[in-house]
TrEMBL record:
Residues 2-236 form the ABC transporter domain. It comes from Paenibacillus zeirhizosphaerae. PROSITE patterns: ABC_TRANSPORTER_1, ABC_TRANSPORTER_2. The keyword Transport applies. It comes from the Bacteria. This is Amino acid ABC transporter ATP-binding protein.
Length: 240
């Protein structure tokens, strides 16, 4: 589903990604961890072409993103992304936030899109908030709307960039529960998170990044039992 081959990325003279080789299969749940500034968000954003790579090859869902001729809008329909700060439209009701892309981008009729939106709001457990505005919802509820909005495009892959980092502790669990349920349903997911309990329980693979490099790519059992890399050990010991 996702393949990086010898990918490098620079911001001016600063190299943010260094020789990334990474293959993610359909249905896998991959958690990316690492210190702040290590390149996790950049790696994720390359996967839906919010960032372009400097060199190497990157193929996502059968599309060669290093090829300058790709139809980005068509490509992005298949990749859902959930951000730390939800990025909902504040002046639109919950339901209208979800209906927008399917009607505008996919050309789905309003009534069909609304029915689909309700299905996904049920899926994330907040169908009773359909007519509310984002500001009337808790952070956890807003993030669940953002997930429902992503799902409504019926994506092949869902990307999550620290989806619970901006939430009050008591609402983190409800968002992780939704993500866990998506994982169990077989969704291909790439998740940047500091929630190690979630990583341990839900991930098929844990990837540890530092200074633009992938230093480890292991199962959670292996990684949490004994990371191979000193820098990963130091990172984990600081979290506890
Ligand atoms: P992480 O998500 O692991 O915290 P990022 O991918 O956001 O790391 O950033 C990695 C590094 O790249 C950081 O040093 C950051 O300052 C730098 N960086 C990120 N975006 C840009 C940008 N648009 N221009 C220049 N430097 C950037
Ligand atoms: Mg980040």
């Amino acid at each position: 589903m996702i393949q990086f081959r010898n990918v490098n990325k620079h911001y001016g003279s600063f190299q943010v990604l260094k020789d990334i080789n990474l293959t993610i299969e359909e249905g896998q749940v991959v958690v990316i961890i690492g210190p702040s500034g290590s390149g996790k968000s950049t790696l994720l954003r390359c996967m839906n072409r919010l960032e372009t790579i400097s060199d190497g090859e990157l193929i996502v869902n059968g599309v060669a993103l290093h090829d300058k001729k790709v139809d980005i809008n068509k490509f992005r329909r298949n990749i859902g992304m959930v951000f730390q700060h939800f990025n909902l439209y504040p002046h639109k009701r919950v339901i209208d936030n979800i209906v927008l892309a399917p009607t505008k981008v996919l050309g789905v009729s309003k009534s069909e899109a609304a029915a689909t939106a309700m299905t996904y709001l049920k899926r994330v457990g907040i169908e009773d908030k359909a007519q509310s505005y984002p500001s009337q919802l808790s952070g956890g509820q807003q993030q669940r709307v953002a997930i429902a909005r992503g799902l409504a495009m019926k994506p092949q892959v869902m990307l999550f960039d620290e989806p619970t980092s901006a939430l009050d502790p008591e609402t983190i669990g409800e968002v992780l529960d939704v993500m866990r349920s998506l994982a169990h349903d077989g969704m291909t997911m790439v998740i940047v998170t500091h929630e190690m309990g979630f990583a341990r329980e839900v991930a098929d693979r844990v990837i540890f990044m530092d200074q633009g490099q992938i230093l480890e790519d292991s199962t959670p059992a292996e990684f949490f039992a004994e990371p191979r890399e000193e820098r990963a050990r130091t990172f984990l010991s600081r979290l506890i």
